[in-house]
Amino acid sequence: MASKRDWLEEGLRILSEDGAPALTIERLSTRLGLTKGSFYHHFKGMAGFRADLLAHYEDEHTNRYIADAERAGEAAGAKVGRLLELVLEDKAASDGLEIAMRAWALQDAEARALQERVDRVRVDYLESLVRGLAPAQRDPRPAARLLYLLWVGAQQLVPPMPAEELREIYLLALRSVERNEGP
């Protein structure tokens, strides 16, 4: 029997591939090779699944990243370095999950509320890192937004930007922040 996490991970894959309208019990069950009864063992219908999927996305693609970055040490530079590695290694994002989530947020109030919260948490965390990198910077918010917008914008490119090129752009932006030349 598949775990609740298995169902949620498959949901994120379907979302990445075909968008929120493709999230059906039939499609999930078929992809996992399981019965609909197994689905109902873990979720209270499709509405419950979607709510759990949004929470799972937030936990895996925001909260876990922040927790992992925090474990990198006390120094803001170490945290930024770890966060950069996590972001650049994120296969789900390069497979379109972030784009699919934003598209879903345009069509669904619950997904929109989640996306707003995720964006706010991510920018707030980046702001705390910028404050640690450049304590003399008058207002770290614009620099934090710049770093986040690099991530969001890079996902829109077709074909996707290679991780090494994106790393170079991030490092350029971080050098600017550290010298207090940021926005």
From TrEMBL:
<keyword id="KW-0238">DNA-binding</keyword>
<feature type="domain" description="HTH tetR-type">
    <location>
        <begin position="1"/>
        <end position="61"/>
    </location>
</feature>
<dbReference type="InterPro" id="IPR009057">
    <property type="entry name" value="Homeodomain-like_sf"/>
</dbReference>
<keyword id="KW-0804">Transcription</keyword>
<protein>
    <submittedName>
        <fullName>TetR/AcrR family transcriptional regulator</fullName>
    </submittedName>
</protein>
<dbReference type="InterPro" id="IPR001647">
    <property type="entry name" value="HTH_TetR"/>
</dbReference>
<dbReference type="Pfam" id="PF00440">
    <property type="entry name" value="TetR_N"/>
</dbReference>
<feature type="DNA-binding region" description="H-T-H motif">
    <location>
        <begin position="24"/>
        <end position="43"/>
    </location>
</feature>
<keyword id="KW-0805">Transcription regulation</keyword>
